[in-house]
Structure to design on (634 residues):
């Protein structure tokens, strides 16, 4: 485990709780001390932790900020060049490109647990953070499915279900359902606060819901949004287009039926997806079209819930 | 009580619970039947309910959709022309204008409890809905402060604190903290759903928070946003300006520091307002500048928490 903040610290706790042998290292002396004080094998010596992983053929999990990924990948290439490697950062194409460039011999499989809070640091971590969450485990054309299964097994052991997707599909989807929500929350919080004390005094449920994630540490929001620029720009343009159309409609006809109905249908789509009846499905990992099968399942809104020796078992709507 | 939906039904229940004599009427046979089945004095005969209010000099509360206000005001002018009258609709300038036009002899004082849920109808009502909520009770230059105090007393009896504001100030503030949140939630829900099943499968906290109010009944959202067009348009323009600037910044420099920091500061402003130390304040309702004093208190983020015979007692940050 490299990085012991909210996510890394939660993975370390959760993996230890299910009986896995774990150790961690982080550039943050405060997080390393806090983890050690809680009884975990943790230090600030990232290189030593990586060398130990190489010796034991352990799965290395990178849970460092996106901005620190390159430096840690260079250390991986020196200390554990052919290790089994995953990460938990919120943007996947950039990390994939960096892994290919800076740790080309590592068996890298990108990952992203869709869980988190507005908090950060070791003390905010929680072994139960991943229970019931979607955990994207990336499948590229050249992904080693043996390595993929090891990473998927970690996610499932920690209580998540696995969504197999390419890095590009992941990045486009999170631009819509994670990065745009953070940006709209920031816009709303700024426009609301410009209304002064009276606006703050009247703020109720719709405002507190809509601005909640604006309280996230700015560095974290910057890292994920700026790091997903290519996928995010067209999604921001969609939002600008919809908001502009809404504005034009209110100014000209005075009516907002179309915009409000579209939002209502969107809300119904989420509710329907969550209530959908799921059918069982199995993907043989040794089959020639296994990668396509996994990705098709992810793109249809399906999930892998368990793994046998050579088969991924899941469900799709 | 005219109107027995979520808000009207909740006011009826809450007022009865504190020992007030209450009766209600509504155009909705379903709501009237449900209220009667729950033991309340409720019918579909709005005119009879208004005549009874005139006989007993009762406070009439309009809790009908914005689109039905004019018709009910015309009935007030016929059946209870000089009654003490308030309303609980979410836009105040429009109702004030309508009250002056269609029930010119009523002692009208606009009101708006900042409470609600995505539900609607009598069965969704709850006597505890107004506990701890801000309830705007409008103060215009010609407001009779005796009538104002009666409406404020109802709000306080029902567990709310009173925020005195002009209708125009109210409408500008709710455009920011209620109507814009509903519109941004609609935009986000539409853009998110356009991402298809994979986006819905990955949606987590930031998305569910940001789209929660998009599940509100569209007719309700249309009524409040379309009914507050004048105040809402410049607020939408502020949001468009901020989102456009953010888009430009991401496209050109790749950086979002300014936008994200502004949102973070906005979130801190809400937290600070909620944690502010409050000082006691009293406004003598018989003083010549009482209206100015009440409005200044409201504009500073203050609230009235109790009323004596001739004094409003409150607190300000």
């Amino acid at each position: 485990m490299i990085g012991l903040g909210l996510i890394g610290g939660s993975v370390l706790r959760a993996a230890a709780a299910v009986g896995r042998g774990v150790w961690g290292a982080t550039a943050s002396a405060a997080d390393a001390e806090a983890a050690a004080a809680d009884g975990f094998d943790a230090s600030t010596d990232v290189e030593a932790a990586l060398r130990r992983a190489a010796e034991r053929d352990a799965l290395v999990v990178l849970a460092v900020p996106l901005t620190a990924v390159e430096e840690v990948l260079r250390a991986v290439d020196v200390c554990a060049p052919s290790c089994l490697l995953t990460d938990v950062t919120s943007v996947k194409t950039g990390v994939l490109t960096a892994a290919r460039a800076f740790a080309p011999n590592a068996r890298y499989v990108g990952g992203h647990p869709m869980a988190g809070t507005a908090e950060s640091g070791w003390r905010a971590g929680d072994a139960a953070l991943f229970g019931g969450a979607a955990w994207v485990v990336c499948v590229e054309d050249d992904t080693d499915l043996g390595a993929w299964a090891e990473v998927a097994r970690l996610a499932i052991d920690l209580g998540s279900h696995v969504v197999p997707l390419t890095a590009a599909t992941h990045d486009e989807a999170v631009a819509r359902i994670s990065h745009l929500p953070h940006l709209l929350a920031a816009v709303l919080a700024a426009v609301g606060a410009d209304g002064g004390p009276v606006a703050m005094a009247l703020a109720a449920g719709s405002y507190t819901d809509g601005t909640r994630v604006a309280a996230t540490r700015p560095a974290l929001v910057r890292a994920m949004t700026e790091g997903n620029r290519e996928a995010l720009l067209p999604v921001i343009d969609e939002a600008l287009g919809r908001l502009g159309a809404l504005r034009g409609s209110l100014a000209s006809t005075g009516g907002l039926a179309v915009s409000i109905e579209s939002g209502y249908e969107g809300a119904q789509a989420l509710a329907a997806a969550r209530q959908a009846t799921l059918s069982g499905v199995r993907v043989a990992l040794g089959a020639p079209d296994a990668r396509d099968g996994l990705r098709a399942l992810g793109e249809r809104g399906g999930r892998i819930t368990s793994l046998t020796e050579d088969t991924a078992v899941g469900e799709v709507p």
Observations:
- The first helix of chain A runs from residue 6 to 17.
- The radius of gyration of chain A is 21 Å.
- DSSP finds 13 helices and eleven strands in chain A.
